[in-house]
Amino acid sequence: MSLRVLSVVVAAGVALTAASVSQVKSQGKPPLDFESFKSRVEPIFLEKPQGHVRCYTCHSENNSAFHLERLPDGANFWNDEQSRKNFQSVSGLVATGDPAGSRLLIHPLAPEAGGDLFHSGGRQFESKNDPDWKALAQWAGAEK
Ligand code: HEC
């Protein structure tokens, strides 16, 4: 194959790949938003609701798929770089094709409310009416 033909073939391949990528994107939901993750979602992980340990206490220590960065000494919030890592970890728990079925939403929810039977961290949300659960669901694209 001459170099010229080869480069045409390569270019066509690149164009095809680009086309299929943009097709997937346009079919899916809008991508998860980093700014609202920082302002609305991350604070929930640090909160300490009555009778619960906050998500951060366990999920910055353990190695489950939901992993939060350790806060720097003396800091009460993550810096931008850490938030990016949290964002990546948490985004992996969102099912973009079926946001309502996301692990992030189902796993910490009480079983009677439609959540998983067992979460080592217990029933973090008693129902889907919990404002924090709602904020997570909105961010994940499962609720308006
Ligand atoms: C007392 C410790 C503890 C607390 C508090 C806790 N978790 Fe967990 N969580 C765990 C452990 C351990 C696992 C992995 C084993 C399991 O599935 O139960 C887990 C698993 C998960 C998973 C499934 C992802 C995976 O790694 O497989 C999600 C999602 C999750 N937790 C969300 C939360 C959220 C959201 C909060 C706070 C609202 C929270 N957890 C609070 C201990 C905790």
Helix content range: 40-55%
Q: How large, in whole angstroms, is the Cα Rg?
A: 20 Å
Class from secondary-structure proportions: mainly alpha
Low-confidence stretches: 19-26
The separation of the N and C termini measures 55 Å
Number of domains: 2
- Beta-strand fraction estimate: under 5%
Describe the structure.
This protein is mainly α and 144 residues long. The longest helix is centred in the first third of the chain and has 25 residues, at 3-27. The relative contact order is 0.12. It has 6 helices and no strands. It is globular, with a radius of gyration of 20 Å. It has 2 domains: 1-30; 32-140, no CATH class. The model is unreliable at 19-26 (pLDDT under 50). The protein binds heme C (HEC). Heme C binds next to helix 3 and helix 5.
Question: Topology of this structure?
Answer:
Elements: H1 3-27, H2 34-46, H3 55-59, H4 80-91, H5 103-106, H6 131-140
Bound molecules: heme C.
What descriptors fit this protein?
6 helices; single chain; 144 residues; globular; 2 domains; binds heme C; mainly alpha
Structure at a glance:
The chain has 144 residues and is an all-alpha fold.
